[in-house]
Write a structure and sequence with these properties.
This protein is α+β, with helices and mostly antiparallel strands. Helices cover 31% and strands 35% of the residues. The protein contains three helices and eleven strands; from the N terminus they run H-E-E-E-E-E-E-H-E-E-E-E-H-E. The chain has helices spanning 2-31, 106-120, 170-182; strands at residues 36-39, 44-48, 64-68, 73-76, 83-88, 94-101, 125-133, 136-142, 150-156, 159-166, 185-187. The strands form two sheets. Strands 1-4-5-6-10-9-8-7 form an eight-stranded antiparallel beta sheet, sandwiched between helices. A hairpin with a 6-residue loop joins strand 4 and strand 5. It is globular, with a radius of gyration of 15 Å.
């Protein structure tokens, strides 16, 4: 039961992140102008992760992730401290990041973190690539229904992140994921 809870929570958090990335902005744009804030390149953002934490007293106590914004972007309001959505100044690139904690087995949690992504893009899949940047290690994936769409699920200790990117090319998206993860650290909120 405990393992199931730890596996389901990251998946549910990722579903929420994808809803914020894919659905909420489109609906809000139709009704209300999007609230955005300019963010300078290198600005540090901290996301407080959602989750239950680890039941293992020896586990990593971190429950947040901090990262540097890779380029000047606009942060779109999501209303959730565990998610961030950015768009480039020209609007061609979108970057979404969500954080969860309580991951005790990434081999189980990693593929489940992809399930919410597949809810909006059923053909999303791991492409066999891995990412190893900073203290985060994980798997790369592709979003076939999205122009230049790539994603990654990664963890550092018991903190996991899901990163989605849409833009000009998959290569540019993977470079953006690498840059974000290189600046990322799991921290205590």
């Amino acid at each position: 039961m405990v393992r199931l809870v730890h596996s389901v929570v990251p998946a549910l958090a990722t579903v929420g992140a994808l809803a914020a990335i894919a659905v909420v902005p489109a609906v809000l744009n139709a009704v209300v102008p999007t609230r955005e804030t300019a963010v300078a390149a290198g600005a540090h953002i901290t996301l407080t992760a959602t989750g239950f934490g680890s039941l293992d007293s020896n586990a990593d106590p971190n429950n947040a992730v901090t990262f540097a914004v890779p380029e000047a972007m606009r942060r779109v309001a999501t209303g959730d401290e565990s998610r961030a959505l950015f768009r480039s100044e020209d609007g061609d690139t979108r970057l979404g990041i969500s954080a969860v904690y309580g991951i005790t087995d990434f081999d189980v949690a990693g593929p489940r973190m992809l399930l919410p992504i597949r809810a909006s893009d059923p053909k999303a899949h791991f492409d066999g690539g891995t990412v190893d940047a900073g203290s985060f290690h994980g798997l790369l994936c592709v979003l076939p229904k999205v122009t230049g769409g790539v994603c990654a699920v990664a963890n550092s200790g018991d903190v996991g992140v899901t990163i989605t990117v849409s833009g000009s090319t998959p290569e540019a998206g993977r470079a953006l994921i690498q840059t974000v993860l290189e600046s990322s650290r799991a921290v205590q909120a």
